Amino acid sequence: MFRTDMVLVFMLPLTLLSGLTLHAANHGMIHSANRFWPILHILSGLLLFAGSLLHIGAHRGWYKSLWKGTGNHSTATCILSIVYLSNVLSGILLLILKGTKGPHWGLFHYQTGILFGILGLYHFFCRMKRLRKLK
């Protein structure tokens, strides 16, 4: 599990940075005439998605226990899970639409991506002590 967490630690900031740069380039804030940022964002997003699936699989008991209620579960982690799902689904939708249609989906993906980045980093830093013990 430690390796999976380390993949997520590197892929989350890379995906967030590439998404923010892509957004800035699309609004003319920076000049980017090449396809580097979209490709980097898609590839890092796919690696983040793969790592996330492994991470979620390792904690499937936590997710199964949600059916009994959220009483002992971290509210931030529950919100992170919902935001993550929203971000992944909107990203898949944008890939299907080839990113050209539905500007509202692009904005939704951008906003959930920022929120996911913030919550994901918070989730990581709250668990850093436990991760250090896993080495």
| Rg, Cα atoms, Å | 16 Å
Helical content band = over 70%
The biggest beta sheet is recorded as: none
Distance between the termini: 10 Å
Uncertain regions spanning at least 5 consecutive residues: none
The percentage of residues in β strands lies in under 5%
Structural class: mainly alpha
- How many β-strand stretches? 0
Overall description:
This protein has 135 residues and is mainly α. The protein is built from 6 helices and no strands. It has helices spanning 2-26, 36-58, 60-64, 75-96, 103-126, 128-133. Helix 1 (2-26) runs antiparallel to helix 2 and helix 1 (2-26) packs antiparallel against helix 5. The chain starts with a helix and ends with a helix. The mean pLDDT is 84.
Summarize the structure.
The chain has 135 residues and is an all-alpha fold.
Note the topology.
Blueprint: H1 2-26, H2 36-58, H3 60-64, H4 75-96, H5 103-126, H6 128-133
Descriptors:
135 residues; globular
